[in-house]
């Protein structure tokens, strides 16, 4: 089959943009769409459709899929696939970054400058991703050849002389781990900023999560039973978040701040209707600041202004909460109790009343949410509405509402209860962590489910703890430390993906790793030049 010079050049260049199978699929798709348009037009005019008279797209007559396939035989399959994948990743990442910046500009209502089509930051971001993928595939190809070469019988003498080196090279984790670790250093091309640091932190948490899944899948933690489930992360996470919210509020995520602000409405006294509008009423943040001061001062006593009007003097640092504590019950003896439940003398009654209000507040939104989710699930599975088990939906919604209400009630009532268990000088600030830990124990209700939610909270707590360490200068930063963290995390993740893909539960993460590793079902490749694939899938080639 001979081609003309222009046709040969076009077929040669087309290989670097699209594969022969993709080109054939595109031509057939456009032809099908062309048939549909012609059919609608003929039917409107009352004529009968003749499919054989409908031409294919014009460019398909100039160059065919067979022409592209013929020229691809003269090129290296691996190089073609690598070039197409890197160029597509660069284009896709740049387009996504531009769309994201444009949406940010549109929502800012003119507060931010209009994004330019060509931007240096987006170019560096896209180039780093494309180079990372390219370097990983190239290094994986080299390290895999080295790995299989050491296994061969011809390398028997080398294995005897260099036992330590051979042990490393013979490891099934060696090709993917070393390739990903070296390719991850390309991450340093991205511009420095909070986004680069957060991606490195997120990758580290994913590496820890998947590493734990890998160890647990090999039954090395079977002796722990249910205690090894992800719910055990929740008590420690709530302890850290509550402690940081009390003393370092700027180190806590906005989500936990919103949760504390929402739940405070059921426990903290609301502004009375007869209270003058000109006078300020303490907010939940002001109350938390006062509670942190109370713990630092080891829980000072409270003298009721109703019983002792002459001797009642509130220090200046507590003047902001005077509208609340001035109306406290005369039987209250602790300042923290007068601040949290001023109208109720008993802490237990305050806990019961607040938890019931909290449950009704959560159930008002959770029950409709669970019902809507059940309806969407039936539509996706093409089931009838009569197949929805209303009892199971209400049971799940009630269970989750109880969980949230008990967590928030334990948090807000914990400071009162600990004063009956400990003396004022015993663990004045550390008991905040104990309160958060006790509140997190309610996660045992979901010991067999809710894994991703618990891991997300643990990730949030870890970030909060790191910010607290940075704020108090308890850790030292190193230059490009986020790049090293990302490279190590990327190496662990790719090694686990190559060795045991089942340890990675997220389908979205699997898709990203599949793109980076080069496993695609679109490119027609031979097994000899196949790009790196997971170990389990590679054995089936």
Record keyword descriptors for this entry.
3 domains, elongated, disordered C terminus, 541 residues, mainly alpha, 22 helices
Can you tell me the overall shape? Answer: elongated
Note the gap between the termini. 31 Å
Using the CA coordinates, give the radius of gyration: 32 Å
Question: Unreliable runs, pLDDT <50, ≥5 residues?
Answer: 48-54, 520-541
Q: How many structural domains are formed by the residues?
A: 3
Describe this protein's structure.
- By secondary structure, the protein is mainly alpha-helical.
- The chain folds into three domains: 5-72, no CATH class; 78-224 and 478-538, no CATH class; 261-447, no CATH class.
- It has 22 helices and no strands.
- The radius of gyration is 32 Å and the shape is elongated.
- The chain starts with a helix and ends with a helix.
- The model is unreliable at 48-54 and 520-541 (pLDDT under 50).
List the helices and strands and how they pair.
Elements (H helix, E strand, L loop, with lengths): L4 H10 L5 H26 L12 H5 L2 H8 L4 H31 L12 H32 L4 H6 L1 H7 L4 H11 L9 H24 L15 H15 L6 H10 L20 H13 L25 H4 L9 H6 L6 H34 L9 H32 L9 H10 L10 H21 L9 H19 L7 H11 L17 H4 L3
């Amino acid at each position: 089959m001979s081609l003309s010079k222009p046709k040969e050049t076009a077929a040669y260049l087309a290989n670097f943009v699209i594969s022969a199978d993709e080109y054939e699929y595109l031509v057939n798709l456009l032809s099908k769409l062309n048939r549909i348009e012609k059919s609608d037009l003929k039917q409107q005019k009352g004529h009968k459709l003749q499919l054989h008279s409908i031409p294919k797209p014009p460019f398909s007559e100039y160059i065919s899929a067979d022409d592209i396939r013929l020229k691809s035989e003269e090129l290296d399959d691996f190089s073609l696939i690598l070039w197409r994948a890197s160029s597509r990743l660069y284009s896709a990442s740049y387009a996504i970054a531009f769309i994201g910046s444009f949406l940010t500009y549109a929502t800012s209502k003119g507060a931010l400058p209009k994004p330019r089509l060509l931007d240096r930051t987006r170019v560096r971001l896209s180039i780093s991703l494309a180079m990372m993928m390219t370097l990983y595939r190239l290094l994986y190809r080299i390290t895999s050849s080295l790995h299989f070469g050491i296994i061969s019988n011809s390398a028997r003498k080398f294995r005897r002389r260099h036992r330590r080196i051979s042990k490393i090279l013979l490891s099934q984790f060696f090709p993917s781990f070393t390739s990903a670790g070296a390719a991850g250093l390309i991450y340093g091309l991205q511009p420095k900023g909070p986004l680069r640091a957060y991606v490195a932190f997120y990758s580290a948490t994913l590496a820890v999560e998947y590493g734990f899944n890998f160890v647990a899948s090999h039954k090395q933690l079977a002796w722990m039973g249910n205690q090894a489930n992800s719910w055990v992360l929740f008590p420690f996470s709530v302890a850290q978040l509550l402690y940081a919210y009390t003393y370092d509020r700027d180190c806590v995520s906005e989500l936990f701040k919103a949760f504390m602000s929402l739940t405070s409405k059921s426990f903290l006294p609301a502004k009375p209707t007869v209270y003058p509008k000109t006078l300020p009423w303490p907010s939940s943040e002001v109350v938390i600041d006062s509670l942190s001061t109370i713990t630092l001062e080891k829980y000072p006593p409270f003298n009721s202004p109703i019983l002792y009007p002459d001797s009642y003097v509130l220090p200046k640092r507590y003047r902001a909460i005077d509208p609340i504590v001035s109306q406290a019950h005369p039987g209250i003896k602790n300042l923290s109790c007068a601040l949290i439940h001023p109208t109720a003398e008993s802490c237990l009654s305050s806990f019961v009343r607040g938890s019931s209000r909290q449950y009704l507040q959560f159930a008002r939104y959770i029950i409709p949410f669970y019902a809507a989710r059940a309806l969407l699930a039936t539509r996706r599975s093409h089931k009838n509405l009569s197949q929805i088990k209303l009892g199971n939906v209400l049971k799940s919604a009630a269970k989750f509402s109880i969980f949230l209400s008990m967590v928030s009630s334990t948090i807000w009532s914990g400071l009162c209860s600990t004063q009956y268990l400990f003396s004022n000088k015993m663990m004045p600030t550390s008991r905040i962590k104990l309160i958060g830990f006790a509140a997190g124990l309610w996660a045992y209700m979901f010991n067999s489910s809710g894994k991703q939610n618990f891991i997300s909270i643990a990730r949030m707590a870890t970030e909060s703890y790191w910010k607290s360490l940075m704020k108090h200068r308890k850790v030292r930063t190193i230059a490009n430390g986020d790049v090293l963290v990302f490279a190590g995390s990327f190496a662990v993740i790719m090694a686990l993906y190559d060795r045991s893909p089942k340890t990675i539960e997220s389908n979205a993460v699997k898709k990203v790793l599949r793109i980076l590793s080069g496993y695609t079902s679109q490119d027609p490749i031979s097994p000899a030049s196949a790009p790196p694939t997971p170990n389990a899938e590679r054995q089936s080639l």
